[in-house]
């Protein structure tokens, strides 16, 4: 029998993250993590970190991290917000900006946390279908809305837009906040951060989990006109004035300052991505050109579930989504050269049977 209080409990389908293996022997290619360690400057910052300051609250505004991000992009610090991973930053943005009662718009195939926040925060939304090749067409967003959220590149499809279509999207939505989620933009050649100076309704979110190898510390930033940043700060201060700990602030700032290491790792992952994509195509896989640190593939003779299960039994974890339109596709994170060689070897075994 249902108890009375149970009627008041939230009803929501939570986000499902990639499986975390319980063995170090697993080749983990299912969470779009970076296969390489953080910058040596991060390691130095952690080694030299004064643990005595942990008795105090961290900087309320994460100022050292915000400044490092601002310096990297040539912005004023007032244009930068920081938080615990892009999920935290995006959640604050949804709270701050989407309160009109009109539906916000985002692609029907995209990051599956967006509908979770909408349900949790009671934000109406409308999903805009991507086309048969999983591509976003910005003209589909030229209509009345309460805001637009667009990942660029998109996940899990890997497909990115050039800056011009994004600017066209902004020109047609001057009365709405447009969030461009750039979680994977560092693996493309396109970032819309420069457009912040031109469009005061644009918000860019980025994470340090992917290209800067800090998934375990949860570090991210948003960039926008200072007026919008003030609203993100107001939301933050309404539920947690100290969201970022001192260790994450220090390490994140160090990662942002080491441009040489960042570029070296970024280029290495892109090179491995292109090599792996070519090898997958040789095996008969069909996949779009990727602008991210992962690949989105399907095979004409073997189902995605079959391939996923075969690889899992051999200690290689990739991502399989049991969702409409993409339930015969696989998302494969780009790992090290050695990891991707083992992936290809396992696929060759399966396809030779």
Shape annotation: globular
How many helices does DSSP assign? 10
Helix content: 25-40%
Strand content: 5-15%
- Contiguous uncertain segments of 5+ residues: none
The number of domains: 2
CATH topology of the largest domain: Aspartate Aminotransferase, domain 2
CATH class value of the largest domain: Alpha Beta
Q: Radius of gyration, rounded?
A: 21 Å
Which whole number gives the mean pLDDT?
95
Following the backbone from N to C, one meets helices and strands in this order, namely EHHEHEHEEHEEEHHHEHEEEH
Derived from helix and strand composition plus strand pairing, the structural class reads alpha/beta
Question: How far do the termini sit from each other?
Answer: 53 Å
- Total beta strand runs: 12
What name goes with the CATH superfamily of the largest domain? Answer: Type I PLP-dependent aspartate aminotransferase-like (Major domain)
Instruction: Quickly give the CATH architecture of the largest domain.
Output: 3-Layer(aba) Sandwich
Going across the major beta sheet, what is the strand order? 2-8-7-6-5
Largest sheet: 5 strands, mixed
